[in-house]
Write a sequence for this structure.
């Protein structure tokens, strides 16, 4: 296991960065592929749904919920 890595994303035309551990990046990419959307599109959907929660935290919990069979954005 290695430390978190910062990646740039484009959310509705605006650049932002999100820091996640490599394992979460891999799971996030797999989740986007499973849903047939790009990483940026999935991140934008999550960004709209997250409310006051940080985007990186929201992504981690969404991945966990998906793995546990729950629903999320």
């Amino acid at each position: 296991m290695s430390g978190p890595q910062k990646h740039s994303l484009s959310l509705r035309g605006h650049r932002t960065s999100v820091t996640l551990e490599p394992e979460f990046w891999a799971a996030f990419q797999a989740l986007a592929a499973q849903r047939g959307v790009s990483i940026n599109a999935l991140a934008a959907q999550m960004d709209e749904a997250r409310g006051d929660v940080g985007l990186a935290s929201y992504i981690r919990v969404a991945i966990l919920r998906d793995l546990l069979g729950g629903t999320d954005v």
Summary: The mean pLDDT is 91.
